[in-house]
TrEMBL record:
Residues 17-72 form the HTH deoR-type domain. The keyword DNA-binding applies. This is DeoR family transcriptional regulator. InterPro entries: Carb_Metab_HTH_regulators (IPR050313), DeoR-like_C (IPR014036), DeoR_HTH (IPR001034), NagB/RpiA_transferase-like (IPR037171), Tscrpt_reg_HTH_DeoR_CS (IPR018356), WH-like_DNA-bd_sf (IPR036388), WH_DNA-bd_sf (IPR036390). It comes from the Bacteria. SUPFAM superfamilies: NagB/RpiA/CoA transferase-like, Winged helix' DNA-binding domain. SMART domains: DeoRC, HTH_DEOR.
Length: 266
């Protein structure tokens, strides 16, 4: 049976994923595809109930309906930003609080794109004398209201769907700095430790952040493990600390045995 996930999904409609729906989502993310008949037998409910679950998850762009079953969404496109904002919000806040507790006052930071990194920006509200360079306009908006924190926004092309700044201008600005901590999010982590994103332009910026940070923190909730995404960013071996909310899959233990990346559980 798949590992049980803590119910935490919320939308403005107050609709939540129940435990069965969360387990169904985790199962398909792990296996890639499942038939309606298989899922009905696994969860001991009717096929009609499973179809309703699949319709909900597909409407939220978390999974994709296929004839007779359900599979992963395209590896070429991420789910909508407003969906990502509310998905696993409690887990993201816990991760953010843990990351923030490892950032000292007077530090210099890069913060990149993502809803988890935006939660980290919120969690840093009580820090003092930080200097933050970001290509995330939402992070800049959040942190510009904090006392004693200087925010530098990179140039670049604005990605309308989430306020991200990408392109050569963003890379050029980041490359001028060498900071204490680079804080990044990620779309997918393969079992062999490969890091993946959906947008190659975003990858270029994250590569620059990794290169120009003395310490790299990766913040990723458990759904990012073995999640397909199109573009290779790098490898977990380039990350100093992985902050996540659940133990890493057993299939990844051999990968972590070969690298020096630490794991911090929120």
């Amino acid at each position: 049976m798949p590992a049980k996930l803590t119910p935490s999904y919320s939308q403005t409609s107050a609709q939540t994923l129940n435990l069965r729906q969360q387990e169904l989502l985790a199962n398909v993310q792990r296996e890639g595809f499942a038939s309606v008949e298989q899922l009905a037998a696994q969860f001991r409910v009717t096929q009609q109930t499973i179809r309703r679950d699949i319709n909900l998850l597909a409407d939220l762009n978390l999974l994709r309906r296929f004839h007779g079953g359900v599979g992963l969404t395209s590896s070429a496109e991420n789910m909508a930003y407003n969906t990502r904002q509310t998905l696993l919000s409690d887990e993201k806040r816990r991760i953010a609080a843990l990351v923030a507790s490892h950032i000292p006052d007077q530090a210099t930071l890069f913060i990149n794109l993502g809803t988890t990194t935006e939660e980290i920006a919120r969690a840093l509200c009580h820090h003092r004398n930080l200097r933050v360079i970001t290509n995330n306009m939402n992070v800049a908006s959040i942190m510009s209201n904090y006392q004693d924190i200087e925010v530098i926004v990179t140039g670049g092309v604005v990605r309308a769907r989430d306020g991200g700044l990408t392109g050569e201008a963003a890379v050029d600005v980041i490359s001028q700095f060498q900071v204490d901590f680079g804080i990044i999010g990620i779309s997918g982590i393969e079992m062999d430790g490969t890091l993946r994103e959906f947008d190659y332009r975003e990858v270029r910026v994250s590569e620059a952040i990794i290169k120009h940070s003395r310490t790299v923190f990766l913040a990723a909730d458990h759904t990012k493990f073995d999640r397909p995404a199109l573009v290779k960013l790098g490898h977990l071996s380039q990350i100093d600390v992985l902050f996540t909310d659940q133990a890493v899959p057993e299939q990844m233990h051999a990968t972590f045995d070969k690298i020096k990346t630490k794991i911090m559980l929120a």
